[in-house]
Design brief:
mainly alpha, 6% strand
Length: 171
Amino acid sequence: MKVEEFLNSKMADFNRWPGFLFLNVARLGASVLTEMLSELDITANQWPVFHQIYEHEGSTQKSLAGYCMKDPSAVLRTLDILEKKELIVRKIDEDDRRVFKIYLTEKGKKAHQKAFSIALQCTIMACDGLTIEDLDKFFDIAITLYKNWSNMKDNADKIKESFDSSIANQK
């Protein structure tokens, strides 16, 4: 059976569609992580940016957006919030005064240490019952889906035209 045939046979069970399932898993995971990080006043949405600042101190907003696979404007909003909480500081790049480099403050370093431990424990608990092989396969599948969705986003106009043609041919 081809993937298309399989998905068509499963259309009645919308909960098994990969996009829908990933969305709901991500929402639930974000909700749980936000609750677990609440004592640190860090949300699941802020966590990837906060962690990437730790991993790549001195990075720019644009670089952080790439590391987090987030839109630069979303990263900017997160940086504003983290700065208000005094977890990060922005410093002007000496080579290009239009660019800011982002660093954790001492408070941010302490918060990151706690947040990382919490996020790791949440991830370990969420993966309970999975094998290393399961996780490897999951990563491969997730990366493939991400690449496919990204390609569709980049080529949305062409794809919509092909959908329109396909629908017209069915009439």
